[in-house]
Amino acid sequence: MQIYITGSLAFDRIMTFPDKFSNHILPDKIHILNVCFLVDGLDERFGGTGGNIAYSLALLGEKSVLLSQVGKDFASYDERLHKVGISVEGIRTIETEFTAGAYITTDQSDNQITGFNPGAMKYPSQYDMSRIDPSEALGIISPGNLGDMIDHPRYYRENSIPFIFDPGQQIPAFTGEQLLEAFDGAEILITNDYELEMILNATGLTKDEVLDRVAYLITTLGEHGSVVNCNGEVTDIPAVPVDDVVDPTGAGDAFRSGLLKGLAMGKTVADSCKLGSVCAAYAVEKSGTQEHSFTLEEFTARYEASFGPLE
Q1: Which one of 117, 136, 186, 239 counts the least CB within 10 Å of its CB?
Q2: What is the pLDDT of residues 6-57, one digit of tens each?
Q3: Which InterPro entries does the record match to this protein (predicted)?
Q4: What does residue 203 show for φ and ψ, rounded to 5 degrees?
């Protein structure tokens, strides 16, 4: 099975402020806010939903094609993708833009100030979808360029290619009609519980009406695992125990990688979510969305410790 991942590629540029923001903001002058925070250096990490999903999927031994867009500063990320065996054939380069980037400053109270530059993500990937073989393809649409998130599901529907719709943080950017069109006919709609409520509010649909339009609804619940709903039949999938939760930021994307791996193996959606739970556990144990690693032997042992034999 060839997996196509629609989603963002981005640099996460992380800074730490060795004080509290509140010590440098005058409440009575908030209407003319003008502050400068001297940070303790800069840590640059690879991120973006598409990149994160492809990364963990590569650790699991699956090849994927990223349908994304990057800018003139992409060289180091490009080198990393080649190193881990991720295809770049579907990535469009916009020479006049920078690759999407998040600039995150965290203070001593774990408060954060974030600026996000979409950069090249403002442009569609323009991948020639006719190159996809419908008989052996699976698509996932994760947060990225809005046009791609609408156009790619449409192509998959018209060509009977199964796809997963994962709107994530882009939900507020869609109208209710656009959201409904995008996930209509999906094999799987996947969200966390808060995002699901946002979709219901935006579309005016009930959960049962959403289930009439997709084969499966997966709702992730963080440390409480996930829930698979198919025609009203609900299956609870537990989270895998973690000794030390360092950073939950990349857990959702890692979960999706495990889900895709399971589907590529021919497993049921519920059993595929178990692989997702294991993959997510590795992600939360490291700071950053692509800092975890494991061998297939280690992954299998951890899976079997929680769920029994992996066949």
Answers
A1: 136
A2: 999 999 999 999 999 989 888 887 888 888 999 998 999 999 999 999 999 9
A3: Carboh/pur_kinase_PfkB_CS, PfkB_dom, Ribokinase-like
A4: -90, -20
Classify strands 137-141 and 163-165 as parallel, antiparallel or unpaired.
Answer: parallel
The pairing of strands 10-16 and 100-106 is: parallel
Partners of residue 115 on adjacent β-strands: 103
- Tally DSSP H helices, then E strands, for the chain: 9, 13
> Which is nearest to 7 in space by CA: 166, 185, 181?
166
Q: CATH number of the domain at 2-22+40-307, out of 3.40.640.10, 3.40.1440.10, 3.40.1190.20, 3.40.50.300?
A: 3.40.1190.20
- Residue 135 gets which letter from DSSP? G
Residue 64, both tokens = 């994927």
The tokens for 194 are 């808060």
Cβ 82 vs Cβ 54: under 8 Å? no
- Residue pLDDT, tens place only, 249-302: 889 999 999 999 999 999 999 999 999 999 999 999 998 899 999 999 999 999
Tokens 């519920």 appear where? 270
